Amino acid sequence: MSYSKEEELEGLLVENSKNDWYNILSLRYEMRLIVRRLVLNIAMSLDGFIARKDGSYDWIEGHGTDKYDTVLQFDNQKFFNNCDTVVMGRKSLEDCPLEMIEGYQEKQFIVASHTEQTDYGNVRFVRDIIGEIMELRSREGGDIWLFGGASLVQDCLEAGGIDHLIIGIIPTILGDGIPLFASLLEEKKLLLVESTVTDGIAMLRYDIRR
Questions:
Q1: Are 73 and 4 in a shared domain?
Q2: ∠ CA 115-48-152 to the nearest 5 degrees?
Q3: Which part of the chain is the Bacterial bifunctional deaminase-reductase C-terminal domain (predicted)?
Q4: Do residues 154 and 160 lie in contact, with contact meaning Cβ atoms separated by under 8 Å?
Q5: 98-122: per-residue pLDDT in tens?
Q6: Is 140 exposed, middle or buried (CB count within 10 Å of its CB: 0-12, 13-18, 19+)?
Q7: Domain encompassing residue 26
Q8: What distance in Å separates the CA atoms of residue 92 and residue 153, rounded to the nearest whole number?
């Protein structure tokens, strides 16, 4: 017996198995049910760390000259304007006050937490963050900014949920810290769509090849 894509999707949703997230997303892409992008935008040291072991990020800065800047520049303001939702882990929320995010008052914050937390203002805590992201991506709206941290990025990569990556390579070698990428069940192929340099920070933009 053959099933339609709608019936196959419904069956996968009913099973609700984590191993099926990638298949569910693939079907939703085919059926054009994905209407919003999940975009990872994060800074990383040259040796692959996003923070020191203690979670600090005071090292995130350029090299102090525009001598080697490219003519084309990454439009950070446009990125902020295009995102109306920010997804992050609870530790990231603790390490980075919302006030540090431009235009935070107009954005919705979805925070992954394994324990019960009290929502406040424009911040909402959820346990099933992958399911929440899938639901968000099926609604009309702007891009969804995947802020971090590393474990949440890992979960989203494994689920096949990230559409676009913006990686700012900071001209610093930390030597130790919290790595952005850990072991994955399978490799992810990328397509480099833009590379720019601002104050020694290489901004690399990739699409996920599906």
A1: no
A2: 20
A3: 38-196
A4: no
A5: 777 767 788 999 999 999 899 999 9
A6: exposed
A7: 1-34
A8: 12
Token pair, residue 88, equals 């992050």
Please list the alpha-helical segments (H only) found in 31-167: 76-82, 90-95, 129-137, 150-158
Same domain, 76 and 20: no
Q: In this predicted structure, what is the pLDDT of residue 30?
A: 46
Q: Residue 204 phi/psi, 5° resolution?
A: -110, 125
Q: Are residues 109 and 21 in the same domain?
A: no
Q: Please check whether residues 85 and 170 belong to one and the same domain.
A: yes
Same domain, 97 and 4: no
**What would the two tokens of residue 188 be?**
């992810």
3-18 confidence digits (pLDDT tens): 454 555 455 554 544 4
Determine how β-strand 83-89 pairs with β-strand 108-112: parallel
Structure tokens of 134?
Answer: 């899938």
Residue 200 DSSP code = T
Q: Report how many domains make up the chain.
A: 2
For residues 2 and 54, membership in a common domain is answered with no
